[in-house]
Amino acid sequence: MRFSVFGTGFWSNYQIPAWQELDGVELVAVYNRTRSRAEDVAARFGVPRVFDNPQQLLDAETLDFVDIITDVDTHPLFTRMAAERGIGVICQKPMAPSLPLAEEMVQVCRTAGVPLFIHENFRWQAPIRALKQALDSGVIGQPFKARVSFCSGFPVFDNQPFLAELERFILTDIGSHVLDVCRFLFGEARSLYCLTRRVNPTIQGEDVANVFMEMESGLHCYAEMSYASILEKESFPQTLVLVEGERGSLHLTYDFVLKTTTRQGTTAETIRPVLYDWLDPDYAVVHSSIVDCNRDILHGLRGGRAETTGEDNLRTVRLVWASYQSAEHQELVRF
Ligand code: 89V
Known about the structure:
The chain has two domains: 2-119, 3-Layer(aba) Sandwich (Rossmann fold), CATH 3.40.50.720; 122-282 and 310-334, Dihydrodipicolinate Reductase, domain 2 (2-Layer Sandwich). The chain has 335 residues and is α/β, with parallel strands linked by helices. α1 packs across α9, α4 packs parallel to α5 and α5 packs antiparallel against α10. The strands form two sheets. A nine-stranded mixed beta sheet has the order 14-13-12-11-7-10-9-8-15. The chain contains ten helices and 15 strands. Residues 156, 160, 173-174, 177, 237, 283, 286 line the site of (2S)-2,3-dihydroxy-3-methylbutanoic acid (89V).
């Protein structure tokens, strides 16, 4: 399948080599508004053509899909441009700058009859998949409560300075991932309450969010996220999860250790991510999951069933915006 990458910023340095791990795909052109950055990336990864005008790229190339890795504000526009030409779309999270725009993206692709996938990779992290498998095995019985944590003091703004400028930060950036992991593990939410705050005075948006959900299964799910946490052990970029069930508990803890506790005792296994030579060790478990996420999306593009479709991700986007609504009005949001 022939494809093009739109956006050659920080994330493209991992997204592109992750594609190169898979057979049957060919990156034929990259677009970036600043041409020199696109040229650098194209040279590094052997991409034959470079454009600084997206229309010209779409006119010149025959593509099966585009992979949009630009800032969130341009996602709806580039999605529409590709969809109107009958080209499939993959887009980074968060899908769009607002819920109505995300809904519009899904509608635009549906009307055009092209597939839309959101690159939601956290649920593809090897330790999270192992946790899901353990849950589904029934070893802890029916789960009744869970804590999903992403709390860090990592200087995330060094590599991604635009994050400091976002008026709505942690719920859109990490919340998109963490709330999607909650859905992946525990299903849909019935209601939600959220509190947010900003601790770091040098950024625009909130850097702490605590979301409390009742899931349709009845499970109580506490999703906590913070970029202001100075803790004994820094865990970036790991998502740590504790699930309690009627017969025991599962604890995905530091350094990819999954502990299973029942009345018979505790066992532990370590589920390490594949350490590709192109990944940044500071982001290992996240970068590694890009390959598995891309593989699943490719399966979807070939007509199979993929997990992170636009329609599916809309449910995650709804949780993000319901969290802001709850925090703003100090109200419980029911779905
Ligand atoms: O995947 C992401 O959303 C990145 C990072 C891992 C730093 O949170 O922004």
